[in-house]
Design goal:
Elements lengths: L2 E3 L3 H5 L7 E5 L4 E5 L6 E3 L4 H24 L8 H16 L4 H5 L5 H9 L4 H13 L3 H11 L2 E6 L15 E3 L7 H11 L3 H8 L6 E7 L2 E6 L1 H7 L2
Antiparallel strand pairs: 1-4, 2-3, 5-8, 6-7, 7-8
Helix pairs in contact: 2-3, 2-5, 3-5, 3-7, 6-7, 8-9
Length: 235
Amino acid sequence: MLRSHFIPQFILRAFCESDKIQYMNLASKTVESRNPRSVFSEVGYYPEQLERDLCDKIERDFAPVHKKIISSRYKMVFDANEMFLLKKYLLVASLRIKSDELKQIPTDDFFKNVDTSLNCSTKDDFNRLMLNAKLESNLILEEFFKHIVGSYTIFVKTNHSKIDFIIPDSGSADYIGGYREKKFEVMNGMINMAPIPLFYDIKMKMTRHDYTIFPLSKNTAVLCVNPFYKLLVGK
C-alpha cells in the first residue's frame, strides 16, 4: 500500500534544515529531527488511485508555482493559470487533511470531495464545481470552495522579522472570530441599509472562516481572507 501524505513532500522540504524537519509531538511534548517522508503521513489512508492523482493532478503542476512564491523576495507577478493553480492547491489542501470529522459527515463524501477538486482543470470547472455542490447540498465542498476561491489572497514574508513559520499537521490554520454566528445578520442589515452590489457579492462569498493561513515555507505563507472580515478590518 502507498504511504499517504496529508502535506506534499515539496512543502515539507521547504521547512527542512540539512534534509531534516524539526517535528514536535504535542501528545508527548517531544521535538526530534525527522525525515519529511515520515511525518504527516499514514500508509493506505487514501485509496491508491487518489494518492497518485494528488501527485499527477495538482502537486506536479503547483510545485513550480510554489518555488516561485518562496523564492521571491519582494514583488510577485502571477498569470491567470498560476493563480488558478494556487487556488486549486489551497482548495485541495483544505480538503485532503486527515480528519475523521470530515469523513463521518453523512452528506459529504470525503474522498469524493478531494477527487472532484482535483479534476478541476480550468476556472470554468471551478464554477461548475460550485454549482454542483449547491445542487447536491454538499455543505463541506461548498464551504471550502467559497472560502478559498472567493477570498482575498495575501502573501506574508518574515524576511525582516527572522521568525520562522511552523506547519501544523493539517497544513493550515483557520481563524474564526466572534462574528461566526452574526455574519449573515450583520451583512443582511448592511444590505437593507445600503443595497450596494458589493455587499451582495460579499454575502455570496461569506463563510464561517475569517481567514486561513497556509505556511508554504519557513518564511512564507499565504492567507485567504474572507471579504466580510476584510471589510470590517478596513485594510
